[in-house]
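Let's practice the habit of predicting before peeking. Look at the sequence and jot down your guess about where helices and strands might fall. Then scroll down.
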Amino acid sequence: MRRLFIGLCLLALGGCAPADERWGDYAPPIDVGADASTDASARDPDPVIDAAVDIAPDDADVAPADTDMAPDEADMSPPETDMAPPATDAGPPIPDMIPIDPDMAPPEPDMALADPDMASPEPDMAPPDPDMALPLNCIDGTRRDVPCGLNARGAQPQRCVDDAWIDDGPCADPDRCVDGAVEEEPCGLNDRGTRRRICAQGDFRPPEDCVDPDECRDGAVEERACGERGDGVETRACALGAWGDWSPCAGACVDECAPGETRCEGPAVATCDDLDDDPCFEFGPPRPCENACVDGACAPAPGGAIIINELYYDEDGGDGPGVFIELWGPPGAAVDGLSLVAINGANGAAYATIELAGAIGDDGYYLVVDVDAAPELAPLADLFDGAADLQNGPDNLQLVDAEGVLDALAYGNVGANFFGETAGAADVPPGTALTRIDHGDTDDNSVDFVPRAPSPRAEP
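Done guessing? Here is the structure:
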């Protein structure tokens, strides 16, 4: 009976689910007719049933029991002691068992039963992409990209040929350099310096400043102006990356004297000035003195003439504290009875008169200043008079006595109102004085007077 049950399970259900992997109890016997014996002891406990025999559903057609059946259980041999006892926790019996279909194919004897824990394949799963990066297996015809390049940020295409990966084209590398790499290039005056640049994020950064051990380019020559007025040239040359010493100044003129300086050349006086094409100062042609030259100046003869020597009428800023009128004459000569008369160049009328008193100083000078003279000027004065601040011109100034004009100076273009000697001197700008050259008197203001820096009671 058990074999019949097993056959039904295998044919109808494709297998019977075990209960805890053990056989359960046998199902109750099937009633096949009223005449059949219901005594379990009268049946063969394990009859052999041919699964291919049709079982008739009609009880009337069931054959009578075989009288030669095995004896009662008392005469049966005992069961095998090694047989495992039937399971006690089997499920309930199957009440309506499906009959065996004789045309049903028997199950494959070696077919493995399905693993209930195994996941079923997804029906719509796509086949593997042959261009998928880095496939694990090399299958002929498949392709992949592998990292490449300076910073492994590029893509190297490969394809599988004969079960081996080969490169299929150049590496597509977005980087130009390896991060952290340093390049150096020569630089500097003689290419002995070094300029570095560093790679970051696949590209070289702007180069750093050149570190140059040299100061100059070998063979180079530098020039610079030299001399008191910058008219000379000094040179130096570069050798082995360093400058040599400057050469002596070449081509520069040398001042022979200071501007305005005088010296005696026999009975004549020479004055220093820029008298040629170069920028240096030299002594000009000597001018003869009427008597003698003493200490770079013509000495007045005893009882000689008194003359106007220097006039400073237009100082920087407001006039007054710095202006002066300077006379030159024989030391100790009296000036009492002499007057200075200022005449307007616009209309020819006298607008100021200064009465002199005293005598020419031992140095040959007589100085008239404003009543508000500057502290450095006042100690030099022989006379204080507010009229010493003359008009800025063009105007005239005369030195007179009771008999007439002793000396005269016209400055600027006074036109018809000229009261000087021969031709007027220049009208100088503020801060400049009109100075007589070497105390000489040619009776020509344009020759005797030149613009100079103010030099009260001193040689210009």
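How did you do? Residues 2-13 form the longest helix (12 residues).
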